[in-house]
Every structure is written in structure tokens, then in C-alpha cells.
Amino acid sequence: MDLQAHCPEKILAPEKAVQKIKNGSRVFIGTGCGEPQQVIRSMVEDESIQDIVVYQMLSSTFAQYVDDPHFANRFSLKLFFISLHMRQAAFEGKIDYIPAYLSQIPDLFDSRQIGLDVALVQVSPPDRFGYCSLGISVDITVSGMENAPVVIAQVNPRMPRTWGDGFVHVDDIDYLVPYEEPLVEALPEAKNQEILERIAKYINQLVDDGSTLQVGFGHLPNSILQHLTGKKDLGLHTQVITDGFLPLFQQGVITNKKKSYLSNRVVTSLCMGSEQLYKFMDDNPMFYFRVADFVNDPNIIAKNDNLISISSALEIDLTGQICTDSKGYLFYSGIGDQVDFLRGSKMSRGGFSIIAIPSTAQGGQVSRIVPHLSEGAGVATTRGDVDIVVTEYGIAELHGKGIYQRVMELAQIAHPSFREWLIEEAKKRHYIFGDQVPPSKQDLMFLENYKSHLELESGKTVEFRPLLPSDEFATRNFYYSLQESTVFYRFFYRRKIFSREMLQKQWASVDYHQNMTVVGMVQRGKHKEIVAIGSYGQAEKDVAEVAFVVKEDYQGMGLGSYLLELLERIARENKYNAFTATVLSENRAMIRVFEKRYPNAEIKRGFSGELEIYMPFDQAADSGTKADQGAGT
Q1: What confidence score (pLDDT) does residue 497 get?
Q2: Which of 80, 147, 418, 560 lies 20 to 30 Å from 316 when distance is taken between CA atoms?
Q3: Contact by Cβ (8 Å): 102, 301
Q4: Domain limits for position 55
Q5: Could you tell me which of 295, 200, 189 has the C-alpha nearest to residue 242?
Q6: How many domains does the chain have?
Q7: What phi, psi does 478 have (nearest 5°)?
């Protein structure tokens, strides 16, 4: 459409358009990289415009002026989220922060709780039907426009046309300002690359092929994306698209084919990235831009099966409370979309949320996992909303767990320098028992090499990994679930009680070198259940005593043979040359497991009638088929 021919009376130069803004107006400005920069500059530079209240989601251009006292006398900035550009101004009290869930911001405009007089937005040139596009800034911009009596739009040929809710007809725009300029670019800076890579490795384990993702804005979530390139058929339902997604689009990792809701489409509301990303989105039907109260509505989010929300935080306390928007009394970012997606993912069938957070700040001097949130820190996410927390030291599963278990889960993924301190602080608060042993101070990243899985003929997968302090409760449940005969075969007497003291000693004795315990786990809904435990401990300088037990439902499926081979591999790495085991003579199934792996094993009868079995590693047979599994030794 030719604007000059259709509505010449609406076309104004930037400096003329802003004169339509009356003193004392409440002005809404389009979000983030879609903000109309030249119109904003013209408004600020017009000295006749006074006493303006500005509402915006993410602000960039105002950062050029916010330190000018004369600007502060004329403009009051009220932001729903504090961008990097505006952070220092927030620290100095030069802007006002409005805490609000992103899904609920449009209703603040619709209900007139926040009244608006003018909306300044940026759009693409109109098509032949007269429709412009809000392009990369749809989120709360649609509501801002609909609730402002006067709409001024900068018409920029560089604004992409995007599919969805962002179309607006020129007849619904009061004044049009043709002005071409580059869009704002936002490229999160990668920090602490080694830490990011470690966190990403853990998150990679949690994301299955075919999952639908939400990824929060910021350098940490953005950096994690590059480590998902090996996944298949991921979907995307997320508030913001960044450059971190580009390789996943280009390599066919994100296909949206397996999405259960609005399949074959990326559902989003905002884009903040590079010119390359903006060009990729231009008129691309894969992207479906919807308003923020749709994209961030937990009930809409929950329609996506297997929805995994990945976001970050500033700090988390030992009970699971999370702060995202302030450092103490200093407002740092905003509530944004985190709570919306945490709650939506919790309602999603097969969905869950991940909070990714480096274990320390300030060069390792401060722990981000703390006994209590910093004075002044806001609880943006409650302890009841959190599912999984990931640091560079591991994965903590909090959902459905009590304070005692949460303390142990979080302490074991804290930086090793702070683990003992966290346990002592938890004792002072009576979160845990007074005799609780702290997690190891080792950096246990090397344990990732000991993780593996076994596919069973039934289609189930058993995941194997080393025992962790946080497994104490799950281990208890495992032992109590065993039949009396299985317990007898394992402990040689009819043990009735598996006390906390016994279980704590079990994991406390594991140093992951001379002594090792591995658990086998299967998925039960949103949690994992232990179905097998295998251990070795030093018997002589280069000989370890081995023992394991498998839950009755999983006996005869090869778990014992698999555990034996796995423990052997770990023992070899730790300079052992042989296993020894003590087995009751009637436990024929277990004896067969040992003999199959070690055909030339030395078997002697002990003083009490049990069998002593010596198994040199250099005589081990290659694993062929799955071995029958006995009850335990």
C-alpha cells in the first residue's frame, strides 16, 4: 500500500509526530529490540514535552539519557523488567520497577489499572491490504496499542513481518513516521565458558528428543542452547527468541513435529538478537507470534506435553526459594516469565522446569546456594514451584521433597568450598539432623564418566550412576521394598531395620575411588526409583570386595551382569586387579552371574558354609548376552 496515496494526513516527520504528545501523558513504548528508536529520541529532544510517565517492558534507547538530570525532571520511567542497559540506573533509583508476572501485564492495561494516553511502536511497511506488522515485538505491545487513544508508529523497512497476533492496519494507527534505521540488537555475552559448558552437559541429560522447550532470556540459558545440537525434533513454546536458537533451526534440531499443541510452529512473543536472526524470521511461517497473555498463560503452556522450562536465577536458599529480580535491595532484572512457565510446565504432561545457576558469584567468593536469601532479596519463585536445579556440580531434584532432602540435594551441587558451611547452617536452623555428614568436598564431575544406561527387553531403561548423599531416602525405600529372602541373600541375616545411621554411613564411606556404590534407577512418572544397588570396597591393596542386590521385579533381566561389568570398569580405573565376593551356597543365580563373567573364578567354601569367590579381572570374559540376575550377595 502507498501510504502517501492512502493516508497522507497521517504521515509526519518524527519531530512533528511527538508534538501530538501532551504534557502529563502516560506513554507506552514497544518492547526491547522492537522499540521505535527515532521517535523516542525525538520525544526526548523536544524540550516542550514535559512530565511524561513512560511504561515499557525492556528499555534500551532511554539508557542514552537516563543519567541526565534534566531528563529525569521531564520523564518518569516505569519498567516491568530491568534490562542490562538500565541496570545501573535502577541501582541508583533513577527508574521505577513494576513487579508483575508477564502473563498478567496486558490485563493491567485492559483493566485501566494502568491508564495510557499514547503508544509509541515500530512496525513494518504495510502490505497491499494495509496491514503492518509489529514484527519482533508483539508481547505486551498489542495491549499497549489497543488501550492508548493515540498510536504513533515508526514505519521501518527493516522490521520483519511476522505471522500471528502482530498485524495492525494503518487505519488503526493515528500517526505514521516513515524512518529507516537498524533495529536494536541484543547479543548476550557469554561468561565463564567452562562453567556454562558443565551446566549444559547436565541439562543435556534432562532434555529428551521430542521435548518442547521454553528458554529464558540471558547469557546463561542462551549459552546452554549450543549444547543441544545433538537432539532431535525439539519443539519451542517460549517468550523470547535469541540468536542461541539459530543453529538449532538451521540444523533441523527444532522441528516442532512432536509438539502436542500448535505443532509445526514456534510459538513466541518477542525476539531479541542480531540482524541475521531478524532476517531469518522475516515472513517465516514457522514462527507464530502471539501476545504475552497467551504465550505465558500457564494453562496454555500446559497444553504442550513434555514442556521443559529452562531459566536462571541470582540465588537460591536451601529450602528452594529463588530470587531472580534483585541483588539484596538492588533491583537487577524482573519477575518476567519464569513463574508462568514453572507453573505451566508443572501442569504439562511429562513436563518439568530447570533452574540453571552457577554455584558461585564474585569470582568464586560468594555461594549462590545460600542458607537464606540475602537481606532485601525478593522471592520471585516460591519453594513450591521449583522442580530441578542445576549447577556446574550436578543436578538437584527438589519437587515433592521435604526440607531435609532439599538441603542435601542442594548442598551436594554447591561449590565444594561451601558444602560444609551450608550443612552447618542447615543444622543451626534444624533443617537436618545434628549428626548429618556433609557431602564430599570433591569436584565430582568425573562421575559423569560412570553414568550409563541399560535398555531392557520390556522397553524400560535403567539408568546407572554413582550413589550420592541425596539418595539416602530413596535407598531406604529400596531396601524396605525388598522381600525377606532377597535381604537375607544380601546381608546373610533377616535384617528388619535400615536405619538412617546405617544408610548415612553407606554413602559417607563412598570415596568414588577405593570404595564405590552404583545405583540403577527407572523412571516412575516425574521421579526415578532405585531398583538395583552395587558396591565394591577395598579388601586388599589391589582387590575389592563386590556386592549387589536387585529388586525382585527386575531380577533375571541382566542388571546383575551389567552392574558387575560397570563396577569392574570403575575398579580397574582405580588400580584394582580383582574382585572377591562372599555368597551363600544356595544363591545359585548370583553364583552364575559371577561364573559367566569370570569362568575361571576360584571358589572356596568358608568356615560358615558360605562361598568365597575370587575373580581376577584379567580372566574376565567379554560380555555377550544379558545374564540371568540373582537376588543379591
Answers
A1: 65
A2: 80
A3: no
A4: 3-178
A5: 189
A6: 3
A7: -60, -50
Q: For the residues of 200-247, what is the DSSP string, one character each?
A: HHHHHHH--TT-EEEE-SSHHHHHHGGGGTT--SBEEB-SEE-GGGHH
CATH code of the domain in which 266 resides: 3.40.1080.20
Give residues with Cβ within 8 angstroms of 573, minimum separation 6: none
CATH of the domain at 99: 3.40.1080.10
3-state secondary structure of 594: helix
For 321-364, write each residue's pLDDT tens digit.
Answer: 999 888 888 888 888 889 999 999 999 999 999 999 999 999 89
- Same domain membership, residue 207 and residue 321: yes
Boundary of a domain, candidates 152, 178, 204: 178
- Range list of H helices, 292-415: 292-295, 298-301, 338-347, 403-413
Look at the pTM and tell me if it is higher than 0.90: no
Does 96 lie in the same domain as 11?
yes
139 and 216 housed in the same domain:
no
Q: Return all residues near 353 (Cβ < 8 A) that are at least 6 apart.
A: 308, 309, 310, 311, 341, 342, 345, 346, 385, 386, 387, 388
172-214 per-position pLDDT tens digit: 999 999 999 999 998 877 678 889 999 999 999 899 999 999 9
User: Which amino acid belongs to residue 144?
Assistant: G
CATH classification at residue 493: 3.40.630.30
| pLDDT higher than 80, residue 236 | yes
336 and 479 share one domain: no
